[in-house]
């Protein structure tokens, strides 16, 4: 299992890695409210894809659980599970719990 704190740490570390890889300008600070997609987002569409892949890889490497964050269920939600750092971390926790229960 993975808790909210661990998930948030993974998201923030992954986000920093994406900024380093893509050369996109990183915000001065990354908080739970940092917007990942939509208006005022810190990432472009390619950056979001890179972030999702990076988070999935870190979850598997650090917790031994293989998850797919951008699945049909995630894409059909009214509110994107990739909106902010906190929302993505919650999505990671839910996906890991779902995968662990399967």
Give a verbal description of the structure.
This protein has 102 residues and is mainly alpha-helical. The protein has a single domain, classed as Non-ribosomal Peptide Synthetase Peptidyl Carrier Protein, Chain A. It has 4 helices and no strands. It has helices at 4-22, 45-63, 72-76, 85-101. 29% of the residues are buried. The mean pLDDT is 93.
Just name the CATH architecture.
Orthogonal Bundle
Tally the helices: what do you get? 4
Range of helix content: 55-70%
Task: Please tally the β strands and state the result.
Answer: 0
Q: Write down the CATH topology.
A: Non-ribosomal Peptide Synthetase Peptidyl Carrier Protein, Chain A
Mean pLDDT across all amino acids: 93
Q: What percent strand? A: under 5%
How do the SSEs run, as a string of H and E? HHHH
CATH class category label? Mainly Alpha
Low-confidence stretches: none
Q: How would the global form be characterised?
A: globular
Largest sheet: none
Please tell me the total number of domains. Answer: 1
Structural class per helix/strand content? mainly alpha
Estimated radius of gyration: 13 Å
Question: How would you summarize what this structure contains?
Answer:
This protein is mostly helical. The protein has helices at residues 4-22, 45-63, 72-76, 85-101.
């Amino acid at each position: 299992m993975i808790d909210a704190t661990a998930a948030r740490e993974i998201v923030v570390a992954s986000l920093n890695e994406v900024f380093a890889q893509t050369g996109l300008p990183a915000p001065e600070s990354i908080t739970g409210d940092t917007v990942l997609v939509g208006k005022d987002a810190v990432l472009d569409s390619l950056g979001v894809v890179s972030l999702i892949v990076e988070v999935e890889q870190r979850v598997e490497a650090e917790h031994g659980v293989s998850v797919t964050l951008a699945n049909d269920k995630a894409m059909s939600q009214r509110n994107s599970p990739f909106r902010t750092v906190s929302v993505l971390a919650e999505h990671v926790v839910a996906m890991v719990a779902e995968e662990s229960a399967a």
